Structures are given as C-alpha cells and as structure tokens.
C-alpha cells in the first residue's frame, strides 16, 4: 500500500480527518511531508492511529496510549511494562465502578423515599438534594484524581 491522502488515511483508520489533525497536534503521530501538494500518510501511520483508537476503546487515555506506543518503540521495554500499565488501568476502572455503585445506591435511596405523586413541595427527592450530608463537606468529587504510580 502506498501513501494515502488525509481523507483516505482517515477512512482506512476508521476516524475523521479532524482526529488525524488532532493526533498530529498532540504529537501522537508525526506531521507528514507534503507530496504533490497533499499531505500523505504511510500505512504505518494508519496502523498507529488504529492502535491509538483501540487503546481508547478499552479505556486508555490518549496520554496512556502514547506511553504504550513509547513502550512498543523501546527495544529495552518488556511485556511486563505493558502489563503493569494495563493492571493500573484495571485498578482505575475498579475505582470508578465502586464510585458509580455508591452513586447508584444513593439514587436508589432517594427514589425509594419518593411517593411518586403529588406536588413538588412534598417531593422527597428535591428535599434530599437540599440537604447536605455531613460528609459532603469533605467530598472532593470535583477535584481531578491524582494518578497513582504503577
């Protein structure tokens, strides 16, 4: 397969043209040389884009996908390094699942207390949202999560 225009490369990789441009700006793929006035992409770049997209599909961030690509390119890297990255991602997913289960339980509790009819002045769900539980003061839900080292 010879080099492809950006549109053709996007179709081959299963992404939009803007995704390719974004990946270039983020340094995930190299900006190609212009051939015949058009930017052309090699089959290797298309494969790299597919790799990034697949990593995203299974939960890796773009930064993590870039780290995996760097490991893949490092002749000194070991499969254990990649496995450690994946195990770290599993731990993050487990943490998110736990948090979502806590959220679900809280929602189920307020829904169970709701009579499901009547005026809004007696809506127990709205009343519950007006009440700030004591632990809410310590909640850091809006703060970015700190990454744990693998």
Automatic annotation (TrEMBL):
Signal peptide bounds: none
Residue ranges of coiled coil: 83-110
GO terms assigned for molecular function: DNA binding
Alphabetical UniProt keywords: Coiled coil, DNA-binding, Transcription, Transcription regulation
InterPro entries: DNA-bd_dom_put_sf, MerR-type_HTH_dom, MerR_fam, Tscrpt_reg_MerR_DNA-bd
Domain HTH merR-type: residue ranges: 3-71
Domain of life: Bacteria
Protein name: MerR family DNA-binding protein
Species assigned in the record: Methylorubrum rhodesianum
């Amino acid at each position: 397969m010879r080099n492809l225009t950006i549109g053709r490369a996007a179709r081959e990789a299963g992404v939009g043209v803007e995704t390719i441009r974004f990946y270039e700006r983020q340094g995930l793929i190299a900006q190609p040389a212009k051939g015949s006035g058009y930017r052309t992409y090699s089959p290797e770049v298309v494969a790299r884009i597919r790799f990034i997209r697949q990593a995203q599909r299974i939960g890796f961030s773009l930064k993590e996908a870039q780290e995996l690509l760097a490991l893949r390119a490092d002749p000194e890297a070991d499969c254990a390094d990649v496995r450690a990255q994946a195990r770290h991602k599993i731990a993050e997913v487990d943490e998110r699942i736990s948090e979502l289960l806590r959220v679900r339980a809280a929602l189920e509790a307020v829904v169970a207390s709701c009579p499901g009819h009547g005026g809004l002045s007696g809506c127990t769900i709205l009343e519950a949202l007006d009440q700030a539980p004591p632990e809410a003061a310590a909640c850091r839900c809006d703060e970015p999560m700190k990454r744990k080292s693998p």
